[in-house]
């Protein structure tokens, strides 16, 4: 994966410039959350999909296709009807899975196994990310709305599986996806994380809001998707903006271990 393929390496939208996210270093929320806050971070909390790898890999379209197929099969719908149903679940419940569980009592593990049965060929090993994580001081955790199996497959494929202390997946979250605030409280308690010393990284700006409210430092993995980008309400909760994750992490490497 070359750096040019990371989201945000491309031209940025007018709306984003207007929002003050144009300099790549942060926004108004950075006033109190500069590098000093990052230096105090002892726990790094990473989202998985479109965070540890760039959205340009487009794994989500493969997962989305499987979601559509699951819904079409389950309810006897055409692909178009299934897609509309899926979009509605996502809109009204935060995730397709949540909609299926709440409205149709679908068994979550069956759905998760089905939708994550995708080919990871589009995902290339990322040795730069592996080096940056190895040199990053502090604990490293994965906090994902996906399943543990999917997270383990993705991390193995990227070559970073050994870099993380734990995975907190959607089952650990009681199938209540981020940004449900209760899920963050459960995450912090289970892993003994002090939010004041933690930094959360996610490509979905909305997922950073509860983290910031709990006192965590936040970093948005910039992307072009309409659902991932911050609204004006999210902006005060985004402290840093990342275009190149391995490069950004490498700047936080321990001084004695930072040489290439
Ligand atoms: Mg994500």
List the helices and strands and how they pair.
Layout: H1 14-18, H2 35-39, E1 43-46, H3 59-75, H4 79-93, H5 96-104, H6 108-115, H7 127-135, E2 139-143, H8 148-158, E3 166-168, H9 181-191, E4 198-202, H10 205-213, E5 217-221, E6 240-242, H11 245-250
Parallel strand pairs: 1-2, 1-4, 2-3, 4-5, 5-6
Magnesium ion binds at residues 47, 49-51, 202-204.
Strand content: 5-15%
CATH domain fold name of the largest domain: Rossmann fold
Instruction: Give the helix proportion (percent range).
Output: 40-55%
User: Major sheet: order of its strands?
Assistant: 3-2-1-4-5-6
Give an account of the 3D structure.
The chain has 260 residues and is of the alpha/beta class. It is 40% helix and 10% strand. It is built from eleven helices and six strands. The chain has a six-stranded parallel sheet with strand order 3-2-1-4-5-6, covered by helices on one side. Helix 3 (59-75) crosses helix 4 (79-93) and helix 4 (79-93) packs across helix 5. The two termini are 18 Å apart. It binds magnesium ion.
Comma- or semicolon-separated keywords:
6 strands, Rossmann fold, 40% helix, 260 residues, alpha/beta, DNA polymerase, domain 1, binds magnesium ion, 2 domains
Put the structure in a nutshell:
Helix content is 40%, strand content 10%. It has 260 residues and is α/β, with parallel strands linked by helices.
């Amino acid at each position: 994966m070359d750096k040019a393929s990371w989201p945000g390496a491309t031209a940025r939208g007018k709306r984003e410039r207007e929002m003050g996210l144009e300099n790549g270093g942060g926004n108004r929320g950075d006033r109190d959350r500069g590098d000093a806050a990052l230096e105090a971070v002892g726990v790094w909390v990473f989202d998985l999909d479109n965070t540890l790898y760039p959205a340009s890999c487009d794994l989500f379209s493969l997962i989305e296709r499987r979601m559509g197929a699951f819904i079409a099969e389950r309810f006897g719908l055409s692909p178009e009807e299934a897609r509309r149903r899926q979009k509605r679940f996502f809109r009204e419940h935060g995730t397709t899975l949540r909609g299926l569980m709440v409205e149709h009592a679908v068994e979550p593990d069956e759905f998760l196994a089905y939708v994550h049965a995708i080919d990871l060929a589009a995902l290339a090993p990322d040795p730069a990310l592996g080096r940056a994580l190895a040199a990053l001081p502090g604990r490293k955790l994965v906090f994902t709305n996906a399943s543990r199996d999917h997270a383990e497959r993705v991390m193995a494929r990227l070559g970073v599986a050994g870099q993380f202390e734990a995975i907190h997946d959607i089952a650990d979250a009681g199938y209540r996806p981020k940004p449900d605030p209760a899920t963050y409280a459960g995450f912090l308690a289970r892993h003994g994380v002090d939010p004041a010393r933690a930094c959360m990284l996610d490509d979905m700006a909305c997922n950073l809001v509860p983290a910031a409210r709990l006192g965590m430092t936040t970093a948005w993995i910039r992307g072009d998707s309409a659902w991932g980008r911050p609204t004006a309400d999210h902006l005060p909760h985004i402290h840093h903006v990342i275009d190149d994750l391995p490069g950004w992490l490498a700047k936080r490497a321990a001084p004695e271990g930072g040489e290439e």
